[in-house]
Specification:
This protein is an alpha/beta fold and 598 residues long.
Length: 598
């Protein structure tokens, strides 16, 4: 579904300076023989950082390279300007990149990267970043252009802002929730009495001791005495997220004492659909299909040595792609995961009002359904948790200060013995999270909360969410004599030295090791869990609005999806009847094939 906004976007429009051939020089001024011009789009505060970046290069590595960079902050860039008098270096967003690349406006950088990489290395960058700026320079025999893995390198990832959850610390404190920050791989050593959950409740009955320092006993929604623990470095699964959202929803059926009106607000389905291996498109070997509500099950590989489906070998822990799962006949070594339709149903229920139940779309009534995932929702107590990218930080820092923090998005995760139980009819109103240490009817031993495993493989989906990224490119129609100089600046700006400066804008560094380093996390704000942004950047993927040469194919159906389906005015079947044909016509008209999606 189309994203509401992004940081540092390069818009398609007319150059704000007046004139034709002389307009570009008027915007940025003349560039001398020893200079290259760098165009980008930045806010007033970020523009200072971009100038700092260029100045650091000019006084440092630029001296060695014999290159001087002149900056030019343009709020809008006319695509046609890149056919004449183009700058040596252009920063562009992933949303706009393909619209320019399909016009052959960017230089293939493979030769420069292979022959003179400098301190820049793709091995340090998540593949989800590097591959979104790979795009072939020529059409194939079918008149299509390949994008993604294996295609020509036309852009170098420069920064990233992923989808994460913001949460209200006062709201969590009011519920007596103990918040910890511990990565899953460090949990057993650091917190030996905790299980790998984003949110979990541990029994406090019969004299049970607190599972970690800071946890205090309080009553849960089922009236039991428990210790409530939220780990802001492990994703919640579907059941945990909806239960915790119910805890923060102020009504008589859920929690009349909640300090927030709703539990959560999320406008994007990616951490649901992508986590089980689905998508809104699927390549059937010949063409794309609209698969946002595909009802075929997905499959997690649990065979120790992996399996081969068609021409693709999948390792243990990987999920079989849409194109290949159609070929499966023997399910040995595979674990069945929910279909994309089931993921979509869960996502829709999060935002559908309970009073607007429509058959299969019976809503939970625990979250916002409108596209108002803005800082004000957190500030005013509208929600306790909301999904967004880094665009909300400035407003929250001014108005909410230390009262908020970050956590990763949801992930499909199964636990031995399940995650929920019911008191009475199996309805959401009667659904409660299983309490670790409690023995339930029919069980011979207490619920442990351990991850479910098959053949030693944990039953978990992909870590998935969108991210918005920028890249540095060399316009093909810039001065050829300055191509090499432009590359030298790009490789430095995308290396650790340049990224440390660029990260001051709030964008996550392109290199995972740098983004995860204590130096970076502390430099940004040691009082908050910026680890969630670094982790989200490592797993964040290109949004569906940026799959093809423009986002119109999403616009054709996303309005109805967001404003009618998610609001409870339409069922999934009604949505498909209304928009599937239009979506597939739009997909059929695109000129791009995405290697690795489908």
């Amino acid at each position: 579904m189309r994203k509401a906004g992004k940081l540092l976007a390069v818009a398609l429009g007319a150059c704000m300076c007046v004139g034709a051939a002389g307009a570009l020089a008027g915007c940025g001024g003349d560039v001398g023989d020893g200079e290259i011009e760098f165009w980008y789009s930045a806010s007033i505060s970020d523009n200072k950082i971009m100038r700092e970046l260029a100045e650091a290069y000019n006084k440092g590595q630029g001296v060695t390279d014999g290159v001087k960079v002149k900056t030019n902050n343009l709020k809008q860039i006319d695509k046609s300007s890149l056919f004449n008098n183009a700058p040596s270096v252009l920063m562009i967003s992933d949303e706009d990149f393909k619209a320019f690349a399909i016009e052959n406006l960017f230089l293939d950088l493979d030769g420069y990267y292979n022959d003179m990489p400098g301190e820049y290395s793709e091995a340090k960058i998540p593949a989800t970043l590097t591959e979104r700026f790979r795009f072939d320079t020529q059409d194939n025999a079918q008149g299509k252009r390949m994008a993604g893995k294996g295609a020509a390198l036309q852009g170098i990832p420069f920064g990233n802002t992923p989808m994460i959850y913001y949460y209200s610390k006062p709201a969590f404190a009011a519920q007596n929730i103990c918040v910890i920050s511990c990565e899953e791989e460090k949990l057993a050593e650091t917190y030996p009495n905790l299980q790998p959950h984003g949110y979990a409740e541990y029994t406090a009955e019969n004299g049970a001791q607190a599972p970690c320092a800071g946890a205090v006993a309080s009553q849960n929604l089922a009236g039991k005495q428990v210790y409530k623990v939220f780990n802001n470095r492990i994703p919640m699964n579907w059941e945990e997220f909806r239960y915790l959202s119910k805890c923060f929803t102020k009504n008589d059926a859920y929690n009349p004492n909640s300090t927030t009106e709703y539990g959560s607000g999320t406008h994007w389905w990616f951490s649901y659909g992508w986590s089980v291996g689905g998508d809104c498109i699927g390549y059937n070997g010949e063409k794309y299909e609209f698969t946002v509500a595909d009802d075929a099950k997905n499959y997690l590989v649990t065979a120790a040595d992996g399996i081969t489906v068609g021409e693709t070998h999948y390792a243990a822990g990987e999920i079989v792609r849409y194109e290949d799962k159609k070929l499966i006949s023997d399910k040995t070594g595979l674990y069945e995961l929910p279909s994309q339709r089931q993921a979509l149903e869960e996502f829709v229920k999060l935002s559908t009002p309970a009073s607007s139940q429509k058959g299969e779309q019976g809503g939970y009534g625990i979250g916002l359904f409108a596209e108002d995932n803005v800082a004000a929702s957190l500030l005013k107590g509208k929600v306790a948790m909301l999904a967004s990218d880094g665009s909300q930080i400035t407003s929250l820092n001014v108005n909410y200060k230390q009262n908020y923090d970050f956590a990763p998005t949801t992930q499909y995760r199964e636990y031995a013995g399940g995650s929920v139980y019911y008191e009475g009819a199996e309805t959401f109103a009667n659904e409660y999270l299983k309490v670790i240490g409690t023995t339930y009817a029919g069980d011979s031993s207490p619920y442990t909360g351990e991850l479910k495993k098959e053949n030693g493989i944990a039953i978990i989906g992909r870590r998935a969410a969108f991210s918005s990224a920028d890249a540095l490119t060399i316009p093909k129609n810039s001065d050829p004599e300055k191509y090499e100089a432009a590359w030298k600046f790009i490789r430095w700006a995308a290396s650790e030295e340049g990224q440390k400066i660029y990260a001051k804008t709030g964008m996550v560094p392109n290199q995972t090791s740098l983004a995860m380093s204590e130096d970076y996390l502390s430099a940004v704000d040691a009082t908050k869990n910026y680890w969630a942004f670094a982790d989200g950047s490592a797993h964040g993927e290109i949004g569906d609005w940026a799959y093809f040469e423009n986002g119109q194919w999403v616009t054709d159906w996303s309005g109805v999806f967001n404003n009618q389906l998610r609001a409870g005015y339409m069922t999934i079947d009604g949505f498909l009847s209304s928009k599937k044909d239009a979506a597939e016509r739009a997909i059929g008209a695109v000129k791009i094939v995405l290697n690795g999606r489908g």
